[in-house]
Amino acid sequence: MNPAITRALAVTVLTLGIGAIVWVVVDNDDDATVAEVRAEQAANDRETADGATEELEPIPVLGPAPTLTGLDGWLNTDATSLEEIRADHKLTVVQFWTFGCVNCRNTIEALKDIRAEFGDDIEIVGVHAPEFDYEADVDNIIEAAADLGVVWPIALDTEKRNFHRWQEGPQAWWPTVYLIDGDNQLRMQQRGDGTKHYVRLAESIERLLAGEA
Questions:
Q1: 108 C-beta neighbours (distance < 10 Å), count
Q2: Model-level pTM?
Q3: Which of 110, 134, 188, 202 is surrounded by the fewest CB atoms within 10 Å?
């Protein structure tokens, strides 16, 4: 969620009431989950009689993935660095989020679906970059993670150093998700919470695990 949008939304809530709430709902109007879309895709693939395959755009190589520095610790893991986590998995998904962000919460089930589908071949790292003071409290993060079912590693980016360093340009957004391959190359960067974004993430993971360069 862009901080400027957050402030504007707050003003809109005060001035227009229900109108702003509708804007949030409309902005996230995906009905199907990632798991449901993926199941439908698999069924369609099985029903293809002639064996024809769609020609897909290559997955781009966006350059070396940054590291995570200046963290205030980790939750849900004994690891102490992103590199340590990457070494144990073929692919790594890094998402910048904060538990009070509705858009971030909208992505949790999608990440659960992706983790369930690909198992130990991937790991998700949630880089928690708080927008407000109450989101920086570690006890609040632990409680929110438990309530949301976030069981993957959480890196504590309290001062948002990595949040701003990973996102080039004058604005940084919650949530933003990245896909890192086994060569530490960024293969995807996506802002927003739409199901279609996380379906594309799952498709990219599947293709890379199948050996696509």
A1: 19
A2: 0.82
A3: 134
Non-local CB neighbours of 28 within 8 Å, separated by 6+ positions: 103, 106, 193, 194
**Cβ-contact 68, 127 below 8 angstroms:** yes
Place of tokens 């695990």: 209
Count of beta carbons in the 10 Å neighbourhood of residue 165: 15
**Higher-confidence position of 118 and 45:** 118
Residue whose entry in the numeric block shows the structure tokens 């993670």: 145
Share of the chain above pLDDT 70, in %: 79
Tokens of 58: 């290559």
How high is the pLDDT of residue 15? 36
State the pLDDT at residue 123: 98
User: 107 with 198: CB under 8 angstroms?
Assistant: yes
| Rounded Cα–Cα distance for residues 180 and 71 (Å) | 19
